[in-house]
Amino acid sequence: MSPEAARIPTIEWQVAGACNYDCSYCIQSARYRKGRPKRDQLAQAIRAFASLPGTWELKCSGGEAFAHPLFLELIVPELVMRTRHTLSVLTNFSASRAELMRFAHMTRGRLAVFSASLHLEFADIDEFAAKAEWFALQLEPATRFVVNQVVIPDRLPEVARGKAAIEARGLRWFPQLYKVDGGVHDYAEPEALIPLTGRRPGPRQANLAPSYRGRTCWAGVDYAVVDKDGDAWSCRTAKRHGAGFLGNVFTGELTRATAPQACAWDICPCTVPANRGMIEGVTPDGPMESEAE
Ligand code: SF4
Ligand code: SF4
Question: 3-16: per-residue pLDDT in tens?
Protein backbone atom coordinates (compact mmCIF):
# COMPACT_ATOMS: atom_id res chain seq x y z
CA MET A 1 0.00 0.00 0.00
CA SER A 2 1.47 3.36 -0.92
CA PRO A 3 1.85 5.96 1.85
CA GLU A 4 -0.66 8.13 0.01
CA ALA A 5 -3.28 5.38 -0.02
CA ALA A 6 -2.76 4.88 3.71
CA ARG A 7 -3.10 8.55 4.64
CA ILE A 8 -5.84 9.23 7.16
CA PRO A 9 -6.61 12.97 7.34
CA THR A 10 -6.45 13.88 10.99
CA ILE A 11 -6.94 16.86 13.26
CA GLU A 12 -5.75 16.80 16.82
CA TRP A 13 -7.95 19.21 18.75
CA GLN A 14 -7.05 20.41 22.20
CA VAL A 15 -10.62 20.81 23.41
CA ALA A 16 -9.44 22.12 26.78
CA GLY A 17 -6.24 23.61 28.10
CA ALA A 18 -7.14 22.83 31.69
CA CYS A 19 -6.48 19.49 33.30
CA ASN A 20 -7.63 17.96 36.56
CA TYR A 21 -4.17 16.42 37.08
CA ASP A 22 -0.85 18.18 37.59
CA CYS A 23 1.80 15.66 36.56
CA SER A 24 5.34 16.80 37.34
CA TYR A 25 6.51 15.61 33.90
CA CYS A 26 3.73 17.28 31.90
CA ILE A 27 5.16 18.86 28.76
CA GLN A 28 2.54 21.60 29.07
CA SER A 29 3.64 24.06 31.73
CA ALA A 30 1.15 24.71 34.52
CA ARG A 31 0.91 28.30 33.26
CA TYR A 32 -0.22 27.09 29.83
CA ARG A 33 -2.42 24.26 31.15
CA LYS A 34 -5.45 26.51 31.57
CA GLY A 35 -8.62 27.53 29.82
CA ARG A 36 -11.64 25.90 28.29
CA PRO A 37 -13.16 27.18 25.03
CA LYS A 38 -16.63 28.61 25.41
CA ARG A 39 -19.86 27.43 23.85
CA ASP A 40 -19.79 29.81 20.85
CA GLN A 41 -16.11 29.10 20.18
CA LEU A 42 -16.77 25.38 20.23
CA ALA A 43 -19.66 25.79 17.83
CA GLN A 44 -17.44 27.74 15.40
CA ALA A 45 -14.72 25.11 15.63
CA ILE A 46 -17.19 22.32 14.92
CA ARG A 47 -18.51 24.29 11.93
CA ALA A 48 -14.96 24.59 10.60
CA PHE A 49 -14.40 20.83 11.00
CA ALA A 50 -17.74 20.05 9.38
CA SER A 51 -16.70 21.99 6.28
CA LEU A 52 -13.60 19.83 5.70
CA PRO A 53 -14.00 17.72 2.56
CA GLY A 54 -14.11 13.96 3.01
CA THR A 55 -13.86 12.01 6.23
CA TRP A 56 -11.31 12.99 8.83
CA GLU A 57 -10.30 11.63 12.18
CA LEU A 58 -10.85 14.24 14.88
CA LYS A 59 -8.76 13.40 17.89
CA CYS A 60 -9.84 15.26 21.03
CA SER A 61 -7.20 15.93 23.67
CA GLY A 62 -6.31 18.46 26.34
CA GLY A 63 -5.43 19.26 29.08
CA GLU A 64 -8.14 16.81 29.87
CA ALA A 65 -11.03 16.52 27.43
CA PHE A 66 -13.47 14.95 29.89
CA ALA A 67 -12.78 17.73 32.41
CA HIS A 68 -14.35 20.27 30.05
CA PRO A 69 -17.92 20.54 31.35
CA LEU A 70 -19.17 20.77 27.77
CA PHE A 71 -17.32 17.71 26.49
CA LEU A 72 -20.21 15.30 26.87
CA GLU A 73 -22.85 18.05 26.79
CA LEU A 74 -21.89 19.69 23.53
CA ILE A 75 -18.56 18.76 21.97
CA VAL A 76 -19.08 15.03 21.42
CA PRO A 77 -22.78 15.09 20.46
CA GLU A 78 -22.27 18.04 18.09
CA LEU A 79 -19.25 16.45 16.44
CA VAL A 80 -21.28 13.29 15.92
CA MET A 81 -24.35 15.14 14.66
CA ARG A 82 -22.83 17.93 12.55
CA THR A 83 -19.83 16.21 10.99
CA ARG A 84 -19.26 12.95 9.13
CA HIS A 85 -15.86 12.44 10.74
CA THR A 86 -14.65 9.70 13.03
CA LEU A 87 -13.63 10.61 16.57
CA SER A 88 -10.73 9.63 18.78
CA VAL A 89 -9.83 10.74 22.26
CA LEU A 90 -6.76 11.03 24.42
CA THR A 91 -7.61 11.13 28.12
CA ASN A 92 -6.09 10.61 31.53
CA PHE A 93 -9.02 8.22 32.12
CA SER A 94 -10.14 9.96 35.30
CA ALA A 95 -13.74 10.24 34.04
CA SER A 96 -16.27 8.22 36.00
CA ARG A 97 -17.53 4.91 34.67
CA ALA A 98 -20.90 6.54 34.05
CA GLU A 99 -19.30 9.30 31.96
CA LEU A 100 -17.27 6.75 30.02
CA MET A 101 -20.41 4.75 29.28
CA ARG A 102 -22.16 7.90 28.02
CA PHE A 103 -19.21 8.62 25.79
CA ALA A 104 -19.15 5.06 24.41
CA HIS A 105 -22.86 5.23 23.60
CA MET A 106 -22.66 8.66 21.98
CA THR A 107 -19.79 7.68 19.72
CA ARG A 108 -21.09 4.26 18.70
CA GLY A 109 -20.10 3.55 15.10
CA ARG A 110 -17.81 6.61 15.00
CA LEU A 111 -15.04 6.00 17.52
CA ALA A 112 -11.64 5.17 16.00
CA VAL A 113 -9.16 5.22 18.90
CA PHE A 114 -9.58 5.57 22.65
CA SER A 115 -6.21 6.38 24.28
CA ALA A 116 -6.08 6.21 28.05
CA SER A 117 -2.95 7.54 29.74
CA LEU A 118 -1.72 5.95 32.93
CA HIS A 119 -0.20 8.66 35.12
CA LEU A 120 1.54 7.11 38.09
CA GLU A 121 1.39 10.28 40.19
CA PHE A 122 -2.41 10.30 40.14
CA ALA A 123 -3.62 6.80 39.35
CA ASP A 124 -3.24 3.44 41.05
CA ILE A 125 -1.96 0.86 38.58
CA ASP A 126 -4.31 -1.96 39.55
CA GLU A 127 -7.43 0.23 39.72
CA PHE A 128 -6.55 1.79 36.37
CA ALA A 129 -5.96 -1.62 34.80
CA ALA A 130 -9.26 -3.00 36.10
CA LYS A 131 -11.14 0.05 34.80
CA ALA A 132 -9.36 -0.25 31.44
CA GLU A 133 -10.30 -3.92 31.16
CA TRP A 134 -13.93 -3.10 31.94
CA PHE A 135 -14.09 -0.16 29.52
CA ALA A 136 -12.43 -1.96 26.61
CA LEU A 137 -15.30 -4.45 26.78
CA GLN A 138 -17.82 -1.62 26.35
CA LEU A 139 -16.29 -0.57 23.02
CA GLU A 140 -17.10 -1.89 19.60
CA PRO A 141 -14.54 -4.24 18.04
CA ALA A 142 -13.60 -1.64 15.42
CA THR A 143 -12.46 0.82 18.11
CA ARG A 144 -8.85 0.56 19.16
CA PHE A 145 -8.19 0.90 22.85
CA VAL A 146 -4.66 1.62 24.03
CA VAL A 147 -3.02 2.61 27.29
CA ASN A 148 -0.20 5.15 27.07
CA GLN A 149 2.41 5.58 29.72
CA VAL A 150 5.32 7.97 30.02
CA VAL A 151 8.60 6.16 30.68
CA ILE A 152 9.56 8.22 33.72
CA PRO A 153 13.35 7.97 34.05
CA ASP A 154 13.58 7.38 37.80
CA ARG A 155 10.52 5.11 38.00
CA LEU A 156 11.27 2.39 35.47
CA PRO A 157 10.25 -0.53 37.75
CA GLU A 158 6.82 1.06 38.28
CA VAL A 159 6.50 1.74 34.56
CA ALA A 160 7.27 -1.94 33.95
CA ARG A 161 4.61 -2.87 36.50
CA GLY A 162 2.09 -0.71 34.63
CA LYS A 163 2.98 -2.42 31.35
CA ALA A 164 2.63 -5.86 32.92
CA ALA A 165 -0.75 -5.03 34.51
CA ILE A 166 -2.17 -3.73 31.23
CA GLU A 167 -0.78 -6.48 29.04
CA ALA A 168 -1.90 -9.18 31.50
CA ARG A 169 -5.45 -8.06 30.71
CA GLY A 170 -4.89 -8.48 26.99
CA LEU A 171 -4.76 -4.73 26.36
CA ARG A 172 -2.33 -2.72 24.30
CA TRP A 173 0.33 -0.71 26.16
CA PHE A 174 2.22 2.08 24.43
CA PRO A 175 5.35 3.67 25.93
CA GLN A 176 6.19 7.33 25.52
CA LEU A 177 9.76 8.36 26.13
CA TYR A 178 10.09 11.29 28.51
CA LYS A 179 10.44 14.57 26.62
CA VAL A 180 12.39 17.60 27.76
CA ASP A 181 12.94 20.99 26.13
CA GLY A 182 11.75 19.91 22.72
CA GLY A 183 13.85 16.71 22.80
CA VAL A 184 13.94 13.31 24.46
CA HIS A 185 15.40 12.72 27.91
CA ASP A 186 18.92 11.29 27.86
CA TYR A 187 18.33 8.02 29.74
CA ALA A 188 21.35 7.00 31.83
CA GLU A 189 20.93 3.32 30.95
CA PRO A 190 19.28 3.03 27.52
CA GLU A 191 19.56 -0.78 27.77
CA ALA A 192 17.04 -0.67 30.61
CA LEU A 193 14.46 0.66 28.14
CA ILE A 194 14.58 -2.38 25.87
CA PRO A 195 12.11 -4.48 27.93
CA LEU A 196 9.71 -1.53 27.73
CA THR A 197 10.08 -0.29 24.17
CA GLY A 198 11.67 -3.23 22.36
CA ARG A 199 15.05 -2.98 20.66
CA ARG A 200 14.09 -1.14 17.46
CA PRO A 201 10.49 -0.03 17.90
CA GLY A 202 8.57 1.52 15.02
CA PRO A 203 6.03 4.31 15.52
CA ARG A 204 3.36 1.74 16.32
CA GLN A 205 5.39 0.25 19.17
CA ALA A 206 6.73 3.31 20.96
CA ASN A 207 7.08 7.04 20.70
CA LEU A 208 10.79 7.79 20.48
CA ALA A 209 10.25 11.26 18.95
CA PRO A 210 12.59 10.69 15.96
CA SER A 211 13.75 13.16 13.32
CA TYR A 212 12.18 13.01 9.85
CA ARG A 213 13.97 16.11 8.58
CA GLY A 214 14.01 16.25 4.79
CA ARG A 215 11.20 13.75 4.25
CA THR A 216 8.09 14.88 2.42
CA CYS A 217 5.33 15.41 4.98
CA TRP A 218 1.62 16.10 4.49
CA ALA A 219 1.26 17.95 7.78
CA GLY A 220 -0.64 21.15 7.08
CA VAL A 221 -2.48 19.52 4.18
CA ASP A 222 -4.06 16.43 5.70
CA TYR A 223 -2.99 16.88 9.31
CA ALA A 224 -3.27 19.77 11.74
CA VAL A 225 -3.18 20.48 15.43
CA VAL A 226 -5.70 22.93 16.86
CA ASP A 227 -4.83 24.41 20.23
CA LYS A 228 -7.07 25.50 23.10
CA ASP A 229 -7.22 29.03 21.66
CA GLY A 230 -8.48 27.74 18.33
CA ASP A 231 -5.20 28.35 16.50
CA ALA A 232 -4.48 25.69 13.89
CA TRP A 233 -0.92 24.64 13.04
CA SER A 234 0.54 22.18 10.59
CA CYS A 235 2.18 20.17 13.40
CA ARG A 236 3.44 20.52 16.96
CA THR A 237 7.06 21.17 16.08
CA ALA A 238 6.12 23.77 13.49
CA LYS A 239 3.99 25.51 16.13
CA ARG A 240 6.90 25.43 18.54
CA HIS A 241 8.91 27.36 15.97
CA GLY A 242 6.07 29.76 15.14
CA ALA A 243 5.65 28.23 11.66
CA GLY A 244 2.83 26.47 9.83
CA PHE A 245 -0.06 28.67 11.05
CA LEU A 246 -3.34 27.63 9.36
CA GLY A 247 -5.81 30.12 10.85
CA ASN A 248 -8.12 30.12 13.83
CA VAL A 249 -11.13 27.80 13.97
CA PHE A 250 -12.93 30.05 16.48
CA THR A 251 -13.28 32.51 13.62
CA GLY A 252 -14.29 29.71 11.28
CA GLU A 253 -10.96 29.82 9.46
CA LEU A 254 -8.91 26.72 8.71
CA THR A 255 -6.70 27.21 5.68
CA ARG A 256 -4.91 24.05 4.73
CA ALA A 257 -1.63 24.08 2.83
CA THR A 258 -1.98 23.06 -0.80
CA ALA A 259 1.02 20.76 -1.07
CA PRO A 260 3.24 18.67 1.18
CA GLN A 261 6.66 19.97 2.14
CA ALA A 262 10.01 18.62 3.23
CA CYS A 263 10.13 18.38 7.01
CA ALA A 264 12.35 21.15 8.35
CA TRP A 265 12.55 19.94 11.96
CA ASP A 266 14.82 17.76 14.06
CA ILE A 267 12.12 16.12 16.18
CA CYS A 268 8.69 14.71 15.44
CA PRO A 269 7.36 14.46 19.00
CA CYS A 270 4.09 12.68 18.38
CA THR A 271 3.43 9.42 16.49
CA VAL A 272 0.08 10.51 15.05
CA PRO A 273 1.49 11.96 11.76
CA ALA A 274 3.70 8.87 11.32
CA ASN A 275 0.88 6.45 12.05
CA ARG A 276 -1.64 8.26 9.84
CA GLY A 277 0.60 8.01 6.76
CA MET A 278 1.69 11.67 6.60
CA ILE A 279 5.43 11.11 6.33
CA GLU A 280 7.26 9.82 3.28
CA GLY A 281 8.79 6.39 3.88
CA VAL A 282 7.04 5.83 7.20
CA THR A 283 4.34 3.37 6.31
CA PRO A 284 1.78 2.64 8.98
CA ASP A 285 -0.18 -0.56 9.23
CA GLY A 286 -3.10 1.45 10.55
CA PRO A 287 -3.93 4.20 13.00
CA MET A 288 -2.39 3.59 16.35
CA GLU A 289 -2.11 5.64 19.30
CA SER A 290 -0.03 8.35 20.55
CA GLU A 291 -0.08 10.62 23.46
CA ALA A 292 0.46 14.27 23.04
CA GLU A 293 0.27 15.51 26.55
S1 SF4 B 1 0.46 14.90 31.57
FE2 SF4 B 1 -1.70 14.86 30.88
S3 SF4 B 1 -2.85 14.31 32.72
FE4 SF4 B 1 -0.84 14.98 33.42
S5 SF4 B 1 -1.10 17.18 33.88
FE6 SF4 B 1 -0.37 17.00 31.76
S7 SF4 B 1 -2.23 17.04 30.50
FE8 SF4 B 1 -2.85 16.54 32.62
S1 SF4 C 1 7.90 17.30 12.62
FE2 SF4 C 1 6.76 15.46 11.96
S3 SF4 C 1 4.69 16.20 11.48
FE4 SF4 C 1 6.02 18.00 11.58
S5 SF4 C 1 6.68 18.36 9.44
FE6 SF4 C 1 8.23 17.06 10.42
S7 SF4 C 1 7.66 14.96 9.95
FE8 SF4 C 1 5.85 16.26 9.57
Answer: 444 799 999 999 99
